[in-house]
Design goal:
The chain is mainly alpha-helical. It has one domain (1-126). It is 46% helix and 8% strand. The radius of gyration is 13 Å and the shape is globular.
């Protein structure tokens, strides 16, 4: 399986007309928790429509745009619009909050780190 193959716990977003994958991982959860002082604060930032929070969440989880500069990624998030990104980013934080799983799943994680793939998002908060 390639690193960019979509897994069941992944969340898709569209930036600059291209689909990108956000992968819930321990690295992404740890980065966002440290950046915001907990994942609840990241949820709050999304609800308050704080652009920096949207940009940080995308940067922490995106696995399909590793070669894009932070500046270009931030601009792509802004151009996509917070209204369009709100639902998938809330879903992504929900996965991070639940160990990479959808609420109600009995597994022990999304499997993102299994089978040799690093399964890690970018992990850079802001």
């Amino acid at each position: 399986m390639s690193l960019h193959e979509k897994l069941s716990g992944d969340v898709s977003i569209t930036l600059n007309g291209e689909e990108h994958i956000l992968r819930p991982s321990l690295q992404a959860a740890t980065s966002l928790s440290a950046t915001f002082g907990g994942l609840s604060s990241a949820f709050d930032g999304l609800m308050k429509r704080d652009l920096g929070t949207y940009q940080a969440v995308v940067k922490a989880g995106i696995i399909t745009a590793k070669n894009i500069s932070t500046k270009d990624l931030h601009e792509a998030v802004w151009k996509a619009g917070m209204t369009k990104l709100s639902e998938p980013l809330v879903d992504f934080l929900g996965l991070l909050n639940n160990g990479g799983r959808k609420p109600g799943d009995d597994g022990e994680g999304s499997g993102a780190d299994d089978n040799g793939g690093d399964g890690e998002g970018n992990g850079h908060g802001a």
